[in-house]
Amino acid sequence: MQCKDIPDKPILELLAKNPEQWHFFFQDHQYSISQAMPENVPFKLARAKMAQLIKRGLVDGCTCGCRGDFVITEKGKEFLSNEKP
Description:
Blueprint: H1 8-17, H2 43-55, E1 59-60, E2 71-72, H3 74-82
Antiparallel strand pairs: 1-2
């Protein structure tokens, strides 16, 4: 599995549900980013995917391996509004 195999839309939709809430890498947390990723995605791959989304300006947060503290950006919201169903 590679980053390209993890779709952007579910991650951005998860972040957009609670835009004021930070989302984390923690697996069993109510605001875990893993909820929006395919099952059994390794941490290293999840971190790389989030780094790509940050680089593209769709998400803000930290991929150093800490909690993450991910939030959707205005560009991310715009991306979702332009997505076809």
